[in-house]
Task: structure prediction
Amino acid sequence: MLKCIAVMTSGGDSPGMNAAARAVVRTALYEGVEVWGINNGYKGAIEDDMYKLESRSVGDIIQRGGTFLGTARSPEFKTEEGRKQAMANFKKHGIQGLVIIGGDGSLTGGALLSKLGMPIVGLPGTIDNDVWGTDYTIGADTAANTIVDAINKLRDTASAHRRIILIEVMGRKSGWLAMTTGIAGGAEYVLVPEVKYNIDDMCQELKEAYDRGKRYSIVVVAEGAGSAIEIGKEVGEKTGIDTRVSVLGHIQRGGSPSVEDRIKASMLGEKAALALISGLSNVVFGFDAGKVVSIDLNDAVHNQKTLDPELIRLARVLA
Ligand SMILES: Nc1ncnc2c1ncn2[C@@H]1O[C@H](COP(=O)(O)OP(=O)(O)O)[C@@H](O)[C@H]1O
Ligand SMILES: O=P(O)(O)OC[C@H]1O[C@](O)(COP(=O)(O)O)[C@@H](O)[C@@H]1O
Ligand SMILES: [Mg+2]
Result:
């Protein structure tokens, strides 16, 4: 049984990270275990920016996006020296195990920390939904709902003006957000980094559809598939149709978490704390077909999650 654990959030923030951290803290306290919060991810671990948490430290946060612990991207942590400094700080405070809430990069960092002897339990926290072994990542549902709300609004104005509107959404390497919101938002095209596309073919089809009387078109572009501004310029020139571009940006990462993100993050937070306290480590908790599952940490970071071909097919059929 561990007597003192810590929790951190790392990488891009995502709505529901607060709910997960809250569940870790309250579960640990319920079990009579001391729990620390590390500010700003690995940056805070290296800078010794950590403090003991109480139940009230995590009050009034379940409904908030972002993360009360702060988050960061830490280049120093990618060095052996940085990781050793973080380990020394954990040891100084008697921290015996760590829950890391973050994306693929943060979990990769966690796998390296565990090699230095720190028990690690990871929770997938990223709007990109790109962590291997889990259908679900904390925050992706809320972000997808925000994007669909934006698509709905863009459809109104696209329809009024008979325009093509491209909307760029996040996803550096992953098209999950673009594909799911493209389907849910009724987009004509979804451009993702995982699938090759031909702009000339797309323009031809868009033009033919307009000639048949179509009023407007929506194209969702994952940022990893190219700049929507550049693609939009080309589409406007090649089709001769009035075209506009909207880059959604960080609006899609903020905001109050959805019920799904609050509940699932809370379930994962409890599991993570209980597992770590009981001596389990090197695991990531996620969801598979609606049930909580544990994934080996090294498997989670060494495998690449692929975009479900069924989603790609469905988007084409329904366009
Ligand atoms: N290969 C790596 N080795 C060590 N630390 C890493 C590695 N990749 C990422 N990290 C740490 O995790 C942080 C967050 O990773 P990043 O990829 O930016 O976000 P996310 O966890 O959301 O995918 C990085 O700033 C770095 O400190
Ligand atoms: O906040 P930043 O630094 O602009 O990062 C933007 C990136 O963050 C994300 O929203 C989340 O990425 P990570 O989960 O890998 O941090 C990406 O989709 C996007 O490319
Ligand atoms: Mg990532």
